[in-house]
Amino acid sequence: MRLVMNEPVERMDRPYARRWWALVVLCLSLLIIVMANTALTVAAPDMTQDLGLSSADLQWVIDGYTVPYAALMLLLGAIGDKYSRRGALVLGLVVFGGGAVFGYLADSAATVIAARAVMGVGAALIMPATLSLLAATFPRAERAKAITLWTATAGLAIAAGPLVAGALLKGHGWSSTFLINVPVAAVALVAAFVLVPPSRAAHHERIDYVGGALSVLWVGSLVYMIIEGPHFGWGTKAVTAAVVAGVSLVLFVAWELRHPRPVLDVRRFAHRRFAGSNLAVALFFLAVFGAFYYLTQHLQFVLGYDALQTGVRMLPLAGAVFVGSALTGYLTPRIGMKITVTAGMVGGTAALALLTRIDSASTYGDFVLPLVILGLAIGLALSPCTDAIMGAFPESELGVGGAVNDTSLELGGSLGIALLGSVLANAYSSHLTDATAGSGLPPRALSTAQDSVGAGYAVAQGIGDKARQLAEEAAHAQNARQAAQLKAQADQLAHGARQMADAVGSSFADAVAHTSLVGAVILGVGTVLVGVLLPRKPGAAVAEEHNEEPELVDAGTR
């Protein structure tokens, strides 16, 4: 059967022959999107030192990627549906790769943040395109398996980012971590033209740009509020963002309910399977991103692993994701997604609960079991949810479906880092205050140490360096009295440095335990809500309303 460019889209009699190779390209594209954040977590200390970043600068280096990424996905997904899903993927890879090169060349906080924002725009094009192309390329009988592999790739990227970044940081500066993405993006770009079939909606009316603009406004404002409020205080910026997010969300819902061709039919959220799946994705990534945020810090700062060693020690999580994905591929068709998703969320809650046992004496061995359980939980729960979300959309709206799934993921992840990160910071500061009470250390040093675990160890190191300097001066003193005075001061400072380092380590460990408890409670309550929302029998769900076959537009080479 021959299909010709610019002619009306025809149905495919048989599935696309190279669909599994196309999936490799889509998974490579997903890989760099996730690695862009996880690699940055291990490069952050070197970047902070080299560029002299404040805590606010570092936060926006991380989140400058998140705001455009989350805000633009829904509108760009709809545009991809109408014009070209493969075109959206290709353009996104070009923009993302360009932003990565810009980040490599950046030499200030402002330029790094700008580069991350450009990469965020590219990610907003790529992410919904990967899911929409997957759903359009694979027949329904194979779609769940393909989505399982897509989800497992995200789990791999969580560990691969720190691992590859750590290897680069052994011999290169932090800027080299931006280049991780460039060769992968280049390979995916070329392979997309060869292996990924062109795809767009067969019948797609004029895009609802007003609804799309309102979605950009409310999601962008909401993510900005989530970032700004917990980290920098609920001042004018955060409150204004909250008001804008609330008003624009109300306007968005009202507009979409009345529009004959909405960018997103919000009535879908009345269906229990769809609503429950989105809630599960958001809650899971709230827990996963939040836990990843503080676990990598603990491994690096408290346990003293370098970037590469940290990446290696996250591998049990990635391996467990693959095992969980294989399990859900076998179990979900037999026992239903309600059981596998709730079981996965129970597992995630248990993993966080195990982390509440972390204390100052904990070693890496205490983290292995929680990491394995968390990885199994991710693999078990997320694939069925993504499949349910994508199945709720007709073939003409697959890009929007991918954007909805990814927006839930990104909102959950942003909220996890902001909320659990704020809990972590407050708990660390409070525990450090108690641990150093009556220590006699300078108030200014204590105040600086409360800013973060990295700052705390930097203060301890600074005090230790001063102690060593005084000890050297004592060794070369002109008289015994002066030498004794200098040695006494050096001993006092050395004791203070050890005391500060011990207090920082124990305070952060206690903060990890406290934050894990908060995360476990949130995910536990969410597990109950998702269990109530998800229907026992999937046959009645929205996903079964659409039975169209994948749509492909040939580029003349098929």
TrEMBL record:
Q: Which CDD domains match?
A: MFS_MMR_MDR_like
Name where it's found: Cell membrane
Per UniProt, the keywords (alphabetical) are: Antibiotic resistance, Cell membrane, Membrane, Transmembrane, Transmembrane helix, Transport
Transmembrane regions: 20-40, 60-80, 87-106, 112-135, 147-168, 174-195, 207-227, 239-257, 278-295, 315-332, 364-382
Keyword presence, Oxidoreductase: no
Query: Which residues does the UniProt record annotate as the domain Major facilitator superfamily (MFS) profile?
Result: 22-538
Give start-end ranges for the coiled-coil region(s): none
Q: What is its main location?
A: membrane
Q: Which PROSITE patterns does this one have?
A: MFS
Return the PANTHER family for the record: EXPORT PROTEIN, MAJOR FACILITATOR SUPERFAMILY MULTIDRUG TRANSPORTER MFSC
Q: What is this protein called?
A: MFS transporter
